[in-house]
Write a structure and sequence with these properties.
- This protein has about 70 residues and is mostly helical.
- About 80% of the residues lie in helices and about 0% in strands.
- It contains three helices and no strands.
- Helix 2 runs antiparallel to helix 3.
- The radius of gyration is 14 Å and the shape is elongated.
């Protein structure tokens, strides 16, 4: 789980990589669920929330960069 304060310390490129990594991880979890190999279903929700958190902070940083 990534905290918002940790994500805010990263730059835009690092946040984009974080979102990409989280999306890949979420896809892997969905495939595990589909093949009935996923033991802990709460990981899906956590990953989804982490993606949303990272995308929100990325959008904030992009807005701040455009406003300057």
């Amino acid at each position: 789980m990534s905290k918002a304060s940790e994500l805010r310390g990263k730059d835009v490129a690092a946040l984009e990589k974080e979102v990409s990594d989280l999306l890949k991880a979420h896809f892997g979890l969905r495939m595990q669920k589909a093949t009935q190999q996923l033991g802990n279903h709460t990981q899906l929700g956590r990953t989804r929330r982490d993606i949303a958190r990272a995308k929100t902070i990325l959008a904030e940083k992009k807005r701040q960069g455009a406003a300057k």
